[in-house]
Specification:
The complex is a heterodimer. Chain A is built from 25 helices and 6 strands. In chain A, strand 1 and strand 2 form a beta hairpin. By secondary structure, chain A is an all-alpha fold. The two termini of chain A are about 40 Å apart. The longest helix of chain A is centred in the middle third of the chain and has 49 residues. In chain B, strand 4 and strand 5 form a beta hairpin. In chain B, helix 3 packs parallel to helix 6. Classes of the chains: A mainly alpha, B alpha/beta. Chains A and B meet through helix 18, helix 19 and helix 25 of A and helix 2, helix 3 and helix 6 of B.
Chain lengths: ~575, ~240
């Protein structure tokens, strides 16, 4: 009986935590901000989705904890969890009807009340609507466990596709407009919002496709070993064509997002060498980005700060300066690594954090103003020119970034499996022992910092040419944090993880402008969740995968042997 | 013993001082290891045993004194250069590369040899010395038991084909059965021509395999004799062998 009571207690506790989360999103204005975007036209908004999400999640958790319990009981737990989730919001609703909370909590306004009461006002009907909606959400969350596995997979996949298409409506419109005329397009979307009929259609199509696919795979039997060569070629070829056509398919605005993602992928690949391979926690990666950008800016600018105007040298163009930026960034990386060679762990992170700030302050300073412009920045940086074609605008710059990324991925993957890479891994695992094995750790760490800086410099140089102007404000701590976050969330040391991480952390907030204000909150939440639920990252490196697999295969320890 | 005095000893420590900040950890340690011997350095916790090994292997700098390996001053060398001279370390607490596989750990041990000549056959030899490692060659080192990790740390050090093996507390934290195995292996490694300087808290086992021993107490060598005599020494019996 006591375990049963404990179960109910945990249901209520997690309900209250979820309720706290819901209350928090309401008070910081996130709910209302998200409410401005409809996921499916005239059906529901992103704000409503966010409102019910904690209840669904907590219902799902409550249903999961009780596998031995009959179905009705599990649904009941979901219901209770959902109802408990609604309590803090109900309290908020009640208090706001009695006291004017807006003087302190400016986000508790009519819009919020309208949202959480589903247009029923602060009275009893509104309260019932809220409690009912969250209760039902809790039941739905618990119900997920009762669906047969194959159907569940199909349903969840279909739901994810529908919500994804709804949330990324702008992207969907861009893609469809390549193939459809205005009239056909208007059946699918109104502006950037998915209409109910195509949403339902998409849901059904994905549902059936997923069911068919799982049936198909089962009847054909699972294939062992690597995919045949022909299939691999098709996959790689398909990916290559897709990557080449992508900017044409998605249009200019989303290409701009793609170029930003690409720049962060570049930086992530660089930082991964220091953090992922050599285990050197570098919190000042923005330094390399800034050095690359300013090198490009000062050397190619046609404005007053440019070398052309100051010294009358006109030979510098984008292509000439790109390798120069790379070398200057590597040199800076080398010089800054010298004083921190003896530092480890937290101390290294703090010192590099300081370097990042120093660079920003130097860029802002009056002292360097005659050279790099101080707060006014560097203006009139020309766009790259490719055999007479001005590579202006994101759709063209995309190809430079794509090329740089591919090159960086190639170099990184070679380094991963090289003697140098092995040497870094040994240092990451144990620096003292690595040196006892004959590794010159000082030289090896210098090399890691230097190579790591290279892609940051390239990213900075392209960034400068892309914007045409650079200001010190672009080179703040947030850049370092972003790059570090994306490689941690993607999976430390994993190359595909960097790409996935950049898509998530850079792409998502840019596509969803509602997110922008809450970007740091998103990072924090994602980080904490990842560390708790999936510390190996979204797309873990081979080592982590192996670690998990080996752990499962491992034979039970034999008698007489004591694990330390 | 007398015949050996004429040739240069493999390792000589002459009045070595070392300190952690203000704490004077070694107060003039002198010892000598001849080619082909097992010499043990015993002493209680905090006596300076590990500090001695850290200083020899260059992970710590001596404040004063000489450390000579085949007559050459090790103080002039960086830590990573020692392995090429023929000095290998089995560190305290094993410290295997946790996220590398067993084979990769062994390859790291042969790092300074660079080319692949003979490394594969040395790995095979390590697997015959420690069959357990052969069974787990693709397992990540960090997921193995303490005893297996000790075997790996030892095998990893042997991969550099050292002439002097420095072993720091190989029995630490292991079950008695495993301690026996480890000490048998130590004898076997020595019989195949590797000189060993063994730092141990388990004086009983260490004096069982060693030819000579030193007793370290608060940074000073207080006793120095052949292993058999040390075992008979009443001071050693009382303080380190648990006899009255």
């Amino acid at each position: 009986m006591s375990t049963l009571a404990a179960n109910w207690r945990s249901v209520i506790r997690s309900g209250l935590i979820a309720g706290g989360v819901a209350l928090y999103t309401a008070l910081i204005g996130m709910l209302v901000a998200f409410d401005e975007r409809e996921v499916v036209r005239n059906s529901f908004t992103l704000g409503q989705l966010l409102l019910v999400a904690p209840a669904v999640l907590v219902g799902w958790l409550s249903g999961r904890q009780s596998t031995q319990v009959p179905a009705g009981q599990r649904l009941l737990r979901g219901l209770v969890a959902g109802l408990v989730t609604s309590l803090p919001l109900l309290a908020l609703m009640f208090v706001s009807s009695v006291v004017n909370l807006r003087t302190v909590l400016i986000n508790v306004d009519r819009d919020l009340v309208r949202l959480i009461s589903f247009d029923h006002g602060v009275g009893l009907s509104g309260a019932l609507m809220l409690a009912g909606a969250l209760g039902v959400s809790g039941i739905l969350g618990a119900f997920v466990h009762l669906i047969p596995a194959r159907l569940r997979h199909a349903l969840l996949t279909a739901l994810a596709w529908m919500l994804g298409a709804g949330i990324l409506g702008e992207l969907v419109r861009q893609l469809l407009s390549q193939f459809l005329d205005r009239e056909a397009l208007s059946w699918f979307l109104r502006r950037d919002t998915l209409k109910p009929e195509p949403a339902a259609l998409l849901f059904v199509v994905v549902l059936l496709a997923d069911l068919f696919w799982s049936w198909f795979r089962e009847t054909r039997g699972r294939r062992e070993g690597p995919a045949p060569r022909a299939l691999q070629f098709t996959r790689v070829g398909g990916l290559a064509v897709l990557l080449l056509l992508l900017p044409l398919l998605v249009g200019s605005a989303i290409s701009d997002v793609l170029t930003n993602i690409g720049l962060y992928i570049l930086m992530g690949l660089g930082l991964n060498i220091a953090v992922g391979l050599a285990g050197l926690f570098d919190l000042g990666y923005v330094t390399n980005f800034a050095v690359g950008a300013y090198t490009m800016g000062v050397l190619t600018s046609t404005g007053v700060l440019g070398i052309e105007n100051k010294m009358g040298v006109t030979v510098f163009n984008f292509w000439l300066v790109l390798p120069v930026s790379l070398l200057v960034a590597m040199f800076t990386g080398f010089i800054l690594a010298l004083p921190v060679l003896r530092m480890r762990g937290d101390y290294l992170a703090i010192a590099t954090l300081g370097f990042g700030e120093i660079i920003r302050l130097l860029a802002l300073s009056d002292w360097l103003k005659p050279i790099i412009g101080g707060a006014q920045g560097v203006l009139f940086i020309p766009a790259p020119n490719f055999f007479g074609v001005e590579l202006i605008g994101p759709q063209r710059l995309y190809y430079i970034i794509l090329g740089a990324c591919l090159l960086a991925v190639f170099v990184s993957s070679r380094l991963n499996n090289s003697r140098t890479g092995r040497q870094w891994m040994a240092i990451r695992e144990d620096e003292d022992v690595a040196s006892a094995m004959g590794i010159n750790t000082a030289r090896s760490k210098l090399l890691a910092f230097t190579i790591s800086a290279a892609t940051g410099g390239v990213a900075g140089a392209i960034f400068a040419a892309k914007l045409g102007t650079i200001f010190p404000t672009s080179f703040n701590l947030l850049v370092s944090v972003n790059v570090l976050s994306l490689i941690i969330i993607g999976g430390l040391g994993s190359l595909p993880g960097i790409i996935v991480g950049a898509l998530f952390l850079v792409g998502l907030p840019e596509l969803l402008r509602e997110f922008d204000e809450f970007r740091l909150l998103l990072y924090g939440t994602l980080m904490v969740t990842m560390m708790l639920a999936r510390p190996e990252g979204l797309w873990p490196s081979a080592v982590y995968q192996r670690e998990v697999r080996r752990g499962e295969e491992r034979a039970p320890p034999q008698a007489g042997e004591q694990a330390a | 013993m007398n015949g050996m005095q004429e040739s240069t000893p493999l390792l000589v420590l002459d009045d070595v001082h070392a300190s952690y900040g203000n704490i004077h950890a070694l107060k003039g340690v002198s010892l000598r290891v001849e080619e082909g011997e097992i010499v043990t350095l015993i002493g209680s916790n905090g006596a300076g045993k590990s500090t001695t090994l850290r200083t020899i292997s260059g992970l710590m700098r001596a404040r004063a004194g000489k450390i000579l390996f085949r007559g050459e001053d090790l103080q002039a060398r960086a830590a990573h250069e020692l392995v090429a001279l023929g000095v290998a370390l089995v560190p305290e607490g094993r410290r295997v590369f946790a996220r590398l596989s067993v084979t990769e750990n062994l390859e790291m041990g042969a790092w300074h040899r660079g080319n692949n000549q003979g490394i594969a056959s040395d790995i095979d030899y390590a697997f015959t010395l420690f069959p357990r490692l052969g069974e787990r060659r693709n397992q990540l080192a960090g997921t193995m038991s303490g005893g297996e990790q000790q075997m790996l740390a030892t095998a990893r050090a042997l991969m550099s084909r050292p002439s002097l093996l420095l072993m720091d507390e190989p029995s630490m934290g292991l079950a008695p059965v495993l301690v026996e195995t480890i000490f048998e292996t130590i004898e076997q490694i020595n019989s195949e021509g590797t000189t060993i300087l063994l730092v141990e808290q388990n004086a009983q086992m260490a004096l069982g395999v060693a030819s000579r021993g030193y007793v370290l107490q608060s940074g000073n060598i207080v006793l120095d004799d052949d292993a058999a005599s040390l075992r008979e020494n009443p001071v050693v019996q009382k303080a380190y062998l648990g006899m009255d």
